[in-house]
Queue: 2 jobs
Job 1
Amino acid sequence: MYDRNDTAGPESTATGGQPNEQCSVCEHAIETTEWYPIRGQVEDVNFSLYTFCSEECLETWENSESNDAE
Ligand SMILES: [Zn+2]
């Protein structure tokens, strides 16, 4: 017995438009119409972009990255 699944699931699929950015630290949604911190990092041969909702999260990320060395 299968009901029609009309309700929005936990993962709402974006239909067109720009994908919403998410903070790489706290996963908070980022208002892309305003300035937000962003960092790029090369991992192996892949270039990854990290976005942050605030400079605090950027600092948190940078600290965790430097602590990760070794
Ligand atoms: Zn954040």
Job 2
Amino acid sequence: MVGLRGRCISVCWHLDSKPTEEKARMLPAGVFLVLSCWVVSLVLGVPPIETQPEQVHISYPGLHGSMMVSWTTFSEADSMVEYGLLGGKLFELVAKGSSAVFVDGGSEKRKLFIHRVMLTRLKPGSTYVYHCGSEAGWSNIFYFTALNESSDWSPRFALFGDMGNKNPQSLARLQKETQVGMYDVILHIGDFAYDMDEDNARIGDEFMRQIESIAAYVPYMTCPGNHENNYNFSNYKNRFSMPGDTEGLWYSWNVGPAHIISFSTEVYFYVDYGLDLIVKQYEWLRNDLEQANKPENRKSRPWVITMGHRPMYCSNNDSDDCTLFESLVQLVEAYNFVLISGVDLELWAHEHTYERLWPVYGFMVYNGSKEEPYVNPKAPVHIITGSAGCREKHDGFIPDPRDWSAFRNSDYGYTRMQVFNSTHLYIEQVSDDQNGKVIDSMWLVKDQHGAAAWA
Ligand SMILES: *[C@@H]1O[C@H](CO)[C@@H](O)[C@H](O)[C@H]1NC(C)=O
Ligand SMILES: *[C@@H]1O[C@H](CO)[C@@H](O)[C@H](O)[C@H]1NC(C)=O
Ligand SMILES: *[C@@H]1O[C@H](CO)[C@@H](O)[C@H](O)[C@H]1NC(C)=O
Ligand SMILES: *[C@@H]1O[C@H](CO)[C@@H](O)[C@H](O)[C@H]1NC(C)=O
Ligand SMILES: *[C@@H]1O[C@H](CO)[C@@H](O)[C@H](O)[C@H]1NC(C)=O
Ligand SMILES: [Fe+2]
């Protein structure tokens, strides 16, 4: 095949190099030759392998009526999304974007083309059918529903951390539940693939193909974990497309009545990559919380929720950094503005277990009341959910947890959350080991948000 194509190209080239009048005389033969080259290359040539889109996923860029579509090819190709309303004319709209070359840090220096196309002016609540790619190859067909922009809306989340390419126990359940429309958003709270950079980033490719079955349908929002650290988090920063201009390290966005802050706990651990990142994130976080707490903002988005990979508190027995001594992540609490700005809920992962805490600050429990600890609590509530499944399997617990620990379970599983309205937020834990059984649930009820609520 290569031979045939090569010969065809050389004949065409030969024809091209002839003086014009000679070409004119040869025209009928020339036309025939050009045509047959074209036909041969159509039949035999350039199957879209390297330019075939794969690893399709979407994310919410934080702008009204928008959605970001990202995917990978292994050689250069255009970046287009063709889309249209479900039930309407297929692919009647087209949006163009661009690709960036990502060179993995491994010995092979593999080159990936990461494509990003932002869709705008989407109708909130409407479902769109799309595919992505270029004339050199199109993806499968997927669909998503543009987020409802109303702060009265009640978004439904699936959330978890620590899901690997091997042993991703919760993935099958998440695939089915996502595809039947149970979730509006997925939060993956750090630690992907184990690890994305391994085998010259082929593990990253495999993992991104695995999660396409969920991440191409609902916005897949992320934060970095320790397993992303190699080559300065380059696989994480390049493969995902989060809001803002910090390569997904820290950002915030609004959905329904919630303001969601994602940040990197890893800046405290991988200081070789730059101590300045601690300061930059600190400044950003302080400013973001200040904005979120402006009365008009807190009124429409009363819930302030954070997500970061490594927890401040946990009761695991793996000699990790939050059980035996104070985690470096405690620094965030030490900043104090978490309390001053009344963060309602803090979501974590990293420990391969599920743990729910009583409202806690500075290692002290501040229940709303003894009978109803989560009704008007006087401190943030923490949830640790890192048991989605990975090659490192489960973690265990210490026998006697501190008094801030309310519920612990080490089954594989993931968490569901719905922010109902300005006063009610619901969380439940699904055990994959027990066939999807709900093993824990909590209603967090707040009549008042912000620092005033702690009084
Ligand atoms: C958005 O959600 C609100 C609150 O549930 C609802 O009243 C409204 O109809 C929704 N908008 C769309 C376009 O679905
Ligand atoms: C690591 O990445 C961060 C964020 O992209 C960058 O600011 C920093 O300079 C990088 N550090 C090194 C040592 O390359
Ligand atoms: C918080 O509430 C729970 C549930 O009622 C209770 O078991 C625990 O002792 C309370 N903690 C404190 C410090 O009051
Ligand atoms: C931690 O707990 C698990 C489960 O209870 C147990 O199997 C494991 O041996 C414990 N590990 C350590 C280091 O104590
Ligand atoms: C919020 O939602 C909860 C649960 O559906 C409901 O009981 C409550 O009345 C609602 N509160 C407001 C202020 O709408
Ligand atoms: Fe981790």
